[in-house]
Amino acid sequence: MTTLPWSRPLTHHDLQAMPDDGHRYELVDGTLVVTPAPSNRHQGAVGKLHLLLAAKCPHELAVRLAPFEVRLADDTVVQPDLIVTRRSDLTDRNLPVAPLLAVEVLSPSTRLFDLNLKNARYEEAGCASYWVFDPIGLELVVWQLRDGRYDEELRLTGEASGTVSAPYEMQVCPVELID
Fold first, then answer.
1. How confident is the model at residue 36 (pLDDT cuts 50, 70, 90)?
2. Which of 25-39, 89-103, 113-127, 151-165 has the lowest mean pLDDT?
3. Phi, psi (5° rounding) for residue 52?
4. Residue 17, pLDDT score
5. pTM
6. Which end of the chain is more exposed for a tag (fewer CB within 10 A), N or C?
7. Which H helix or E strand runs over 12?
8. Separation in Å, CA 95 to CA 38, 50, 111, 136
């Protein structure tokens, strides 16, 4: 049984002591966040996004699916649904730096967390691009880091199609991201 220290914020070290029990554990500002298993619609969208990103990914970069640990700070360890990062930044266990792109697929239980808290933490850590896809509303929002702040680069809904410039150029269409 794992016992957590209740008298202080948790750290990456504490997270490493958690059991490998199939739950998705993340830390944000030292607070443990446990999320339920994703829905079928969520996983279908993650799969489609993975195929889209992997098809265009240059060799020096890599696409990874959750669960894969991204350490934004000692007290902030997240598992985005997808990341794009430099291969040279990866370790066998995690990504110890901000990715070039973090992608979150919204679920009812994580919606506010992904749109607000995670958005702020990715921005603060210097994650160059952040995408959020709503598989129910069929909306994709793309933010780019400019002068240390996220600027909305693109918002697509339904059958609208657009070009994303980073981390590499590709066409996206929300309706095509549904399985």
1. low
2. 25-39
3. -60, -50
4. 73
5. 0.84
6. N
7. helix 12-16
8. 22, 18, 24, 30
Tell me the average pLDDT across 34-51: 87
Give the pLDDT score at 1.
Answer: 39
Q: Using omega within 30 degrees of 0 as the cis cutoff, is the peptide bond preceding 174 cis? A: no
Cis before 167 (ω within 30): yes
pLDDT at 9: 80
Q: So what's the pLDDT on residue 56? A: 94
Give dist(CA 38, CA 31) in Å, integer. 21
8-state DSSP, 36: P
pLDDT per residue over 114-153, tens digit each?
Answer: 888 889 999 999 999 999 999 999 999 999 999 999 999 9
Alpha carbons within 13 A on the beta-carbon side of 176: 12
Sheet of strand 69-73: strand arrangement: 31-35, 24-28, 76-78, 69-73, 94-95
Residue (of 99, 78, 79, 80) closest to 88 by Cα position: 99
In the structure encoding, which two tokens stand for residue 81, read together? 């649904």
Helix residue ranges per DSSP H, 20-170: 40-56, 111-112, 119-125
CA distance 61 to 48: 19
Candidates 148, 147, 143; CA nearest to 167 is 143
Q: CA 163 to CA 103: how far, in whole Å?
A: 16
